Structures are given as C-alpha cells and as structure tokens.
Amino acid sequence: xxxxxxxxxxxxxxxxxxxxxxxxxxxxxxxxxxxxxxxxxxxxxxxxxxxxxxxxxxxxxxxxxxxxxxxxxxxxxxxxxxxxxxxxxxxxxxxxxxxxxxxxxxxxxxxxxxxxxxxxxxxxxxxxxxxxxxxxxxxxxxxxxxxxxxxxxxxxxxxxxxxxxxxxxxxxxxxxxxxxxxxxxxxxxxxxxxxxxxxxxxxxxxxxxxxxxxxxxxxxxxxxxxxxxxxxxxxxxxxxxxxxxxxxxxxxxxxxxxxxxxxxxxxxxxxxxxxxxxxxxxxxxxxxxxxxxxx
Amino acid sequence: xxxxxxxxxxxxxxxxxxxxxxxxxxxxxxxxxxxxxxxxxxxxxxxxxxxxxxxxxxxxxxxxxxxxxxxxxxxxxxxxxxxxxxxxxxxxxxxxxxxxxxxxxxxxxxxxxxxxxxxxxxxxxxxxxxxxxxxxxxxxxxxxxxxxxxxxxxxxxxxxxxxxxxxxxxxxxxxxxxxxxxxxxxxxxxxxxxxxxxxxxxxxxxxxxxxxxxxxxxxxxxxxxxxxxxxxxxxxxxxxxxxxxxxxxxxxxxxxxxxxxxxxxxxxx
Lengths: 295, 269
Prior knowledge:
The structure holds two protein chains of two kinds. Chain A has helices spanning 6-9, 12-15, 23-51, 60-67, 69-102, 105-120, 123-134, 139-146, 160-184, 190-196, 201-229, 233-238, 246-255, 260-284, 287-290. By secondary structure, chain A is mainly alpha-helical. In chain A, helix 5 (69-102) runs antiparallel to helix 6 (105-120) and helix 9 (160-184) packs across helix 11 (201-229). Chain B has helices at residues 2-29, 31-34, 52-58, 63-95, 98-112, 115-129, 135-158, 164-171, 176-205, 208-213, 221-232, 236-268.
C-alpha cells in the first residue's frame, strides 16, 4: 500500500503534549484521515505526477492542451455547455425558489417534495427517460407530428440541445435548493415594508429582495458550475459521441487512445478549476451544509 | 394585507415555478407507461399492455445478479464509511483545533473532486495493487466517495451538543468508553442514520468509477443500466426505473412522516 504521503496523515508529534485522554480522540481523527491520505490522496496526487512525467518529464502535455485545436474545441464546447446550463439553471432555479419561498405552506411542501424526488432519482434513469422523450421516434416528436405541428422529427438528441436539456434537468435541484434555503432566511416583512413606503413592486424586489438573495445566487452558481464542468453521464448518453465535453474526452484518452499523459494533465486542469471554484464558493456558503451527490 | 403587495409578481413566478417542477418530474414519469409496452423496443404501450419487461428483470438478463452486486458493494461501503466517518466527526467535535479543521477539508475532498478524475486516479492505482474488477476495489472507492456525507451528517448532529455533557459524564465517574457509549452515541444516532443512508445511496448510484475499474466480475446495477442504454435502449430499464421511482417516493414520504413526528415530539417537550 503506497504511503508516500505520511506527512499528510497529520503531525502526530502535536498529539503528544495533550492530555492522555485526548489520545483516543486523536486516534478517531487520524484513522479515517490516514485511510484517505493513503488510499485517496496518493492515487489523486499520482495523477498530477503522471501528467508531468509521461511521456517525458516536463510540461509538454500542458503545452499540447494549449496548442492542440481538437482539445481547444473540446474545452470551448465544455465552457459553452457549462455557461448555458448554469445560466438556464439559475434563471429557472431562482424563479422557482422565489415562488416556493412565497406560496402557502401546503403548496410549498408539495413543490419541495417534487423537486427532491427528481433530485433523488438516479441520473441514469433520468437520462434514459430523456432519451425516450427526445429521440427521433420518441414521445415528444410523436406528439408534435400527431398534432400536425411538424412534418419530420426534430433532432433533439446527439446534439447540444439534448445535452443542455439533460444537464439543466440534473442541475436545477442544485440551484433551487441552496437558493430556497437562502431565501428562507430573508425577512418576509421587508418587501411589503418597501412597498408600503411607496416603492413599486419592481423596485421593492430589485433594491430589497434581490441583493439579500445574492449570496445564495452566487453559491448556487458556483455549485452548478462545479458539477457541470466535470459532467460525464449526460453528455456521453444524450450527446451520443457528437457533443464531447472534457470528461468524456479524458475517458477516451484513457481507455481508447491510451494517451495517459494527456488524460492525467486534463484531469489535473479540471481538478484545479473545480478546487478553485470550491474555494470561491466557501466564501458564499458553508460548503459543508449543501451536501448532494455528484453525477 | 401583506400578500396583496406581492400578488402580481408572485403569480408570474408561481406559474414559472410549476412549469419548472413539471419539467423536473414529468419526463421522469414517462418511464412508467413505457415500462408496460409489449414491444421489444422503447415505445408507448398503446392498447396492449404487458409485463414482459418486468419479467425480464427477474429472467436471464442478469439484472438480479447486478442488484445483488450493488447491494453487496453498497452495504459494505456504507458500513465502512459509517464507522470511519463517525469516528472522525466525533474526534473532530471533541478536539476542534486547527489541525482537525484542516483534516476536515481532506475528508470532504472526495465530494468535490470530479468523478472522472477519480476514475483516472483509481484505474491507475488499483491496477498496480491488483484491485481492478474486484469487490474490495470498488467497495474501497465507494467508501471514500461516501465518507464526506457521513462526516457532514454526523457533524451536523453534534453542532448543538454541549461539550460539557461529556465533562459532566466523566466527572461523575464514567470512563471515556462509557461516555462514548451512553452519552455521545445516542446524540449522534440520527446523524449516523442519515449518513448511512446517504452513503448507501452514493454507492448504489455510483457509475463513473465503476465503468472504469470493473468489468465482468463485479457488475453493479448502474453499470448494467449504462450498458443497457448504450447497447439497445432496453425497455427493461424503464421497468427498473418505475420500481426505483416508487421506492424513492416511499422513502421520501416515510422521511417526511418521521420528520413531522419528531417535530411534534420536540414541540411537546
């Protein structure tokens, strides 16, 4: 078992001067931390190491990333899909969270239950359902043709539209839930107070409510960006090989062309971006409290 | 009176909100009618409904074996994550210094790093250790991926626990083991339960690492669904999806009942 990261297990020397009764607690903390340091950090760090040692030592892989046009277009596609997904998820997520925070409690509970239900359904089942709806012989095209609105089926899978629909569907709960949590903390009497003082509904919303919801919005934006940047399942299934985002590109380098140097350096870049976003997010919300599962 | 000020804007938001909720839920529900089709391919059932795709779940397709594999992996991963995560959360709560705060970031890392990076990392590492396509290999990865959720939920149950309770117990003569057992454990039990459920589902749902580090020996349910979608968009997945939607709904309603009951009990105190 590789243990090259002994130092990350934790400075044991500091445990010594404490009272003996603390030893048990140090053991409780260091056992899981050591487990992760050995079995988790080591493999992840060796990804970074391999990115600068294969095929030759140096930053060759990174200059390939900067120069190669195929990789550039994959990265461009990733940024584009992430931006559109994040924008749409935030727009509809914000409005939904706003309505949820204002409607009567029974309605609120029903909406919340339905959002959570979609959140908990496996991403594979959801993607499968979208294929059934969107494919050329699928339900949506069948319905539109049946109604006489179109003559030939619309192309809704194996292109950007399909991927964006699937990704927005996955990301929406991640936008709605933190936004809703944030809006619950906003004093409900502030907007009516602004209205009573003569502000128009628009003005009351934009000068009072909206600024107070900004931390939630920023947190939700970064959370959605983090998950969409490394997303694999939906682009692979709904993009059908036509819409290649960075995660799928990495998997191809790893399993088909066996360019490990490229795979590991792209993985390193992705990880750096995501960790930077996480640090940014921790300014807006308690990273611990949002939880969630990743696709 | 207060709501009158908000009405017009809210009505618009409410309509958009319900449309968004429908967008979230309705497409998923499509798998329910589709699962009853009598045809071999993905289609609306029309007039002749059939249970053939439910039968194929228990038939030769290997779905049952995959459910078994997923149950084995998720159970072991959840138990391991529960033990390690609870140990960490309790130790962190008691010590709560700069070192443990930094170690907490380490514990949360598997939740943040993108799954495809995990796939690259563990494919490399496990091939060196001979853990590819083995139960221990996948269980270990899933344990690590689930750990943050256990740590977070047990920590959450400790947030409001007064550390003096422990001092009180000790000063009344309890050993630290007795204190753990009779003072701490009852407090963290709800957090442990939530963490274990989260851990189990994390493993049960995990697909990306499984695609890369397992092939035939370990064949979990998500991997079989993945292959089923790629090969021929098998309608058996729709019947599986229907069952999973029902189970999720039952789980959520049970949780809501439980929360409500706990709230009324707490309210009565």
